[in-house]
């Protein structure tokens, strides 16, 4: 028999310490020789990113000694920034953004091969010319950063940079064909983001130079190209959304499989991968439908997909190694791990850094819901009910609900294990995690439904999600909370300002003033709002109308702000302006600053402090005396 106790006050063993340490982030899988490599982010080591390898004999080895950390600041979001040549590892180091060389298996410390100044990402090896090729970002402090493709000589007596391709605003995915004769890449220009409009190019490699540069796809500007990849027999493939859905194409023969599913994700970070080649005729791939990921093997000749039935629902970072598909995978009750998939069955987990010491009946199982929003458009979300193996709510009581707005806003949420959600549900809160219009995974049309409507469509969708749950008597209409980070924080502040649906909110490094953001952010996102809101300054009035900072008189409920003071994406002045204005009004407001964090909290102690502060804030606002 469960004990009856007010929702939101249940004792829980899912502590902030467990949340911050239980799920190191895994990413950037690569195969080289007989080893598999990946990057592991460790909150308990102050967010250090360690490159790890799995040997042929099954040994797992950390390659980067302390204090070295793999992290690129190109586009501020980084991504893949390491490459291998024989038994040598080249990687970008977080603290100085220089490329370092490390001889695997030696006792020597990594040595820098580039000077301070330029930033690098998406490193690949051009072994025929004894060089690296990478995306380079050069900041001079006076004008906008310059991006280009660069060759980096590995001659110890002549370590120089050679500009290979320039002229576009952004570059990604430089990739060399297996025969070493051709380089491909994608590029794009302001005001587009890489999920709006990109072009795929290729050029012949002539010694240290490129020749016969030619456009492969994206000429009309109406498609977003993702992950160009060479097959073992030197054929070029890529993902395009020209038919609304991100599907796989051959540069020579067109679409490989026409399917109402997404074989790509928004290119926020370099090196993102959803497919790879088992052999010249077989593509191992991932795709998402209704926010659930699937995996399978695609026969290029027949166009037939053989799906693999497995119990994972979130998948990323594909890499083929030793004839098998490797990836990072998770599920609602399984922390992210690296698994290997054969064409016949799932093998045992290859590497699981997290030990989930939580009883399964203390984990909320997400329910995929679909509800009509404005203009009868359908929106998908995941609903997590309050879940505890020893407690239940009081009679006739409905639980408080937390609506979560993912970042991006061109991002998406899935149903992988998220202890930051389970932290709330195990204490008696309901949670609804919303893929509002503009989210990725539902086709190009859905993704572009937020164009010109940011701050309107996303806010409407959070309201309709709550209305849907209230109508079903699943949540308490008088205890609705909204929380979000980055772009999701803007949705939070807009919903609190322009609607009366929510009674409290949490903005994690969120946006309060669109005008300040558009003039004080980094190059990658500096024109993002052209599509989401409108060109600036031509549409200055719309920016003012949709900025919560200009409508403080309409925001009348408590808010907690959590902000990294080193944030270059959403600078601290965004939070500080909102906090000052609300304090002048006499609104309950809490402002928690993190001097040693940027855009997102990576250090364990800061994650713990943020979660404890947010729980204390809700407990005070709704008079929830915590049971533990």
Please characterize this protein's 3D structure.
- With 628 residues, the chain is of the alpha+beta class.
- The chain folds into three domains: 30-167, 6 Propeller (Neuraminidase), CATH 2.120.10.30; 273-357; 364-621, Rossmann fold (3-Layer(aba) Sandwich).
- A hairpin with a 4-residue loop joins β28 and β29 (346-351).
- The two termini are 20 Å apart.
- The mean pLDDT is 93.
- DSSP helix count? 10
CATH fold-type name of the largest domain: Rossmann fold
State the distance separating the first and last CA atoms: 20 Å
CATH superfamily of the largest domain: Alpha/Beta hydrolase fold, catalytic domain
How many separate domains make up the residues?
A: 3
In terms of DSSP E residues, the strand content is 35-45%
Which value, in Å, is the CA radius of gyration? 24 Å
How does the overall form come out from the CA principal axes?
globular
Helix/strand class: alpha+beta
Strand order of the largest sheet: 30-31-34-33-35-36-37-38
Mean pLDDT: 93
The low-confidence runs, each spanning 5 or more residues with pLDDT under 50, are none
The CATH architecture assignment of the largest domain turns out to be 3-Layer(aba) Sandwich
* CATH classification class of the largest domain: Alpha Beta
Number of strands: 38
Helical content class = 10-25%
Largest sheet: 8 strands, mixed
List the helices and strands and how they pair.
Blueprint: E1 3-4, H1 16-22, E2 25-32, E3 35-42, E4 48-54, E5 60-62, E6 82-85, E7 88-92, E8 99-103, E9 111-112, E10 119-126, E11 131-138, E12 146-153, E13 161-165, E14 170-176, E15 182-188, E16 199-206, E17 209-217, E18 225-230, E19 236-243, E20 245-250, E21 254-255, E22 275-279, E23 282-289, E24 292-299, E25 304-308, E26 314-321, E27 324-331, E28 334-341, E29 346-351, E30 367-372, E31 378-384, E32 391-392, E33 401-405, H2 419-425, E34 430-435, H3 444-447, H4 457-471, E35 480-485, H5 487-498, E36 504-508, H6 514-519, H7 528-532, H8 540-545, E37 559-564, H9 573-585, E38 589-594, H10 604-621
């Amino acid at each position: 028999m469960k004990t009856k106790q007010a929702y939101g006050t249940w004792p829980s063993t899912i502590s902030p310490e467990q949340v911050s340490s239980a799920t190191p982030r895994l990413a950037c899988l690569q195969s080289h020789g007989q080893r598999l490599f990946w990057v592991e982010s460790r909150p308990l080591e102050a967010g250090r990113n360690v490159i790890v390898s799995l040997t042929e004999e099954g040994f797992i080895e950390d390659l980067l000694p302390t204090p070295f950390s793999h992290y690129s600041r190109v586009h501020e979001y980084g991504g893949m920034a390491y490459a291998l040549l024989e038994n040598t590892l080249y990687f970008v180091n977080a603290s100085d953004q220089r490329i370092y060389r490390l001889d695997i298996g030696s006792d020597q410390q990594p040595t820098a091969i580039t000077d301070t100044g330029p930033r690098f990402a998406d490193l690949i090896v051009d072994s025929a010319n004894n060089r690296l090729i990478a995306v380079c970002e050069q900041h001079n402090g006076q004008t906008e950063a310059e991006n280009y493709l660069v060759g980096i000589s590995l001659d110890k007596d002549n370590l120089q940079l050679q500009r290979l391709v320039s002229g576009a605003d952004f570059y990604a995915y430089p990739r060399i064909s297996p025969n070493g004769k051709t380089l491909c890449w994608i590029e794009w220009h302001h005001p587009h983001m890489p999920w709006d409009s990109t072009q795929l190019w290729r050029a012949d490699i002539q010694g240290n130079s490129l020749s016969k540069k030619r456009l492969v796809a994206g000429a009309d500007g109406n498609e977003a190209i993702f992950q160009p990849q060479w097959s073992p027999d030197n054929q070029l493939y890529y993902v395009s959304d020209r038919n609304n859905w991100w599907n796989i194409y051959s540069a020579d023969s067109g679409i490989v499989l026409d399917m109402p599913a997404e074989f790509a994700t928004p290119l926020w970070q370099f090196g993102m991968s959803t497919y790879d080649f088992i052999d010249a005729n077989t593509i191992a791939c991932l795709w998402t439908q209704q926010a659930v990921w699937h995996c399978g093997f695609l026969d290029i000749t027949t166009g037939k997909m053989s799906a693999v039935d497995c119990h994972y629902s979130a998948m990323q970072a594909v890499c083929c190694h030793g004839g098998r598909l490797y990836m990072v995978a998770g599920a609602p009750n399984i922390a992210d791990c690296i698994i290997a998939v054969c064409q016949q069955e799932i093998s045992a987990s290859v590497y699981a850094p997290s030990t989930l010491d939580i009883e399964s009946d203390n984990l909320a199982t997400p329910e995929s819901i679909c509800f009509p929003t404005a203009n009868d458009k359908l929106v998908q979300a995941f609903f997590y009910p309050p879940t505890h193996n020893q407690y239940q709510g009081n009679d006739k009581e409905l639980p408080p609900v937390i609506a979560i707005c993912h970042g991006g806003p061109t991002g998406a949420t899935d149903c992988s294990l998220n202890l930051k959600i389970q932290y709330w549900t195990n204490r008696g809160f309901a949670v609804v995690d919303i893929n509002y219009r503009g989210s990725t995974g539902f086709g190009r049309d859905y993704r572009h439904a937020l164009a010109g409507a940011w701050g309107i469509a996303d806010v409407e969708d959070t309201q309709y999600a709550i209305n849907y749950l209230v109508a079903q008597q699943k949540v308490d209409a008088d205890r609705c909370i909204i929380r979000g980070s980055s772009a999701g924080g803007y949705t939070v502040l807009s919903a609190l300002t322009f609607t009366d649906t929510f009674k409290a909110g949490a903005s994690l490094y969120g946006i309060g003033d669109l005008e300040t953001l558009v003039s004080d952010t980094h190059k990658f996102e500096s024109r993002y709002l052209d599509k989401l809101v409108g060109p600036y300054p031509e549409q200055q009035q719309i920016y003012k109308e949709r900025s919560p900072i200009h409508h403080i008189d309409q925001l009348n409920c408590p808010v907690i702000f959590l902000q990294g003071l080193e944030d270059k994406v959403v600078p601290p002045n965004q939070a500080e302006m909102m906090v000052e204005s609300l304090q002048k009004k006499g609104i309950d407001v809490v402002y928690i600053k993190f001097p040693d964090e940027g855009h997102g909290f990576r250090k364990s102690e800061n994650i713990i402090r943020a979660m404890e502060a947010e729980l204390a804030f809700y407990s005070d606002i709704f008079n929830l005396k915590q049971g533990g």
